[in-house]
Amino acid sequence: MININFFSPKTPSIFAPLMKYTIIALLSLFLYSCQSTSKTSNIDVEAFNTAISQGANIQLVDVRTPEEFLSGHIKNALNIDVNGANFEADVASLYKDIPVYVYCHSGSRSADAANQLLKMGFKQVFNLNGGIMAWKNSNMPVVESVAKPVPTQTHNSDDVESFRKDIKGEKLVLVDFSAVWCPPCQKMKPYVEYFKESRKDDVIIYTIDTDKEPEISKEYNIQSLPTIMMFKNNKMVYQNIGYMSEEDLSNAINQNK
User: Of 80, 185, 252, 253, which one is the catalytic site residue?
Assistant: First the structure.
């Protein structure tokens, strides 16, 4: 048997072309793999609409400012401002294994957001070509949700009057200030709802939508979402601003009940 060292200067010349093409092929495959995992997929309105209609299998994110979002957005979109100070913290509440669909006004900011998400480890990110302008030009529906004052007789969240009464008692009262467009709020929602029933002997839980209840949000100086507050005997005994895991929220209830 002949032992051949491919790295020896004495390697037979017949193997030199083979080694050369093998190296080129491996490098090409490596470069292609790197490009394929870091490239944003830009899709048109029709493909974007088809994809987001899947509902639970996708995450839809509007990366414009909150003001732009409220003036009109795609239904079920979360709002994470790509230029906001909390962008990285807010996207951390998203799931990296579930496809993310992003859009902005014309497609530029969302392309930047998509690239940032890929660098952060998100596996599939899709950008809407032309942004919400293209969406509207294709006569696709948008949701306008500019917050308007709510009459005091009408409450679209939990019963605010009951909340005001309950915080005066000895039993712990937890209020979750949130909004439908807030990603951390929506991630917390399932276990907040679960605790309403499973922890009812320990705590009374209210959820206040800050867009629908602007007056009480202003009263408690709510400036960031989500905000969790706990009360006893008409005094606030606990406050947390920002996302809380299920375990952390449960521990906070235990410590204050």
Answer: 185
